[in-house]
């Protein structure tokens, strides 16, 4: 996606002035659901406003209303809450006008970990003292015959196939009770009957490539790197998406193959890796596929994913790497 913003306007984050306003969009039932009192305590000390969600989609509406009136917009919850807050800021056309902050209170908190925010307390420190970086935003547009196109932004990842099906069917109560293990259990349950998806993947730009075949899952990372045995942070500032395709037909052989090792091994013969600023995924057959954008579900026959290069100011912790090398070990 092209970006014509003037370089001078991009040099200073919106919350860099001597007087700033901060607004926290708080999901009080994310993760274990016991973090709200601590958030209120620390927010009062810092002078931030708090708006609590009451149901699905509330974070988007609250963020859309708050974004034009605040310098620092903070998502408190898991990856899904972050996605909703980002969507709200985008809806208000305010991505240029706010700095995004993250307070990890979800089940997995993958994105928060990728940007060096390991706890709520550390998150508040980062909001005041952390570096502001200009990072890429992914934009996925779903097209299905007979339906209106739908576009959503994301910062961490867009996944399709087995992992998206498992995420969609994971019960929220199970997530609260057993945490990340709920995703793992559900993925293995889904894998027993999952037959793969036939699709064609085309990349765009000067490094155009094409792939077609049957895949168990396709993983598109903006903030997240899926392969390698080191840190999971991708390069969020290079304008490229890290695409991983697992080739194969039929259900995963969970008993006979080292499934987890395959997910970590970028040299496996049935793993295809692509780096590209944009791609188009076309699903064969009559049924659309399910894709998960940081927990927000899309169904599409054709999905276009592209980067809005350095479209967002983001407060990051000390462990964040502007130029992570493949295989970098997590701190």
Features:
alpha+beta; Rossmann fold; 2 domains; 15-stranded mixed β-sheet; 10 helices; globular; disordered N terminus
Brief description of this entry?
The protein has about 325 residues and is α+β, with helices and mostly antiparallel strands. It has 10 helices and 15 strands.
Approximate shape: globular
How many distinct domains? 2
Q: Could you give the order of the helices and strands?
A: HEHEHEHEHHEEEHHHEEEHEEEEE
Low-confidence stretches: 1-9, 173-192, 250-264, 327-331
The biggest sheet, with number of strands, parallel, antiparallel or mixed sense and barrel status, is: 15 strands, mixed
* Nearest-integer average pLDDT: 81
CATH topology of the largest domain: Tumour Suppressor Smad4
State which percent range the strand residues make up.
25-35%
Q: How is the quaternary structure best described?
A: single chain
Top-tier CATH class of the largest domain = Mainly Beta
What radius of gyration results from the CA coordinates? Answer: 19 Å
Gross CATH architecture of the largest domain: Sandwich
Give the class from helix and strand content and strand pairing. alpha+beta
Provide the helix percentage. 25-40%
How many E strands?
15
> What distance lies between the first and last C-alpha atoms, to the nearest angstrom?
32 Å
Q: So how many helices? A: 10
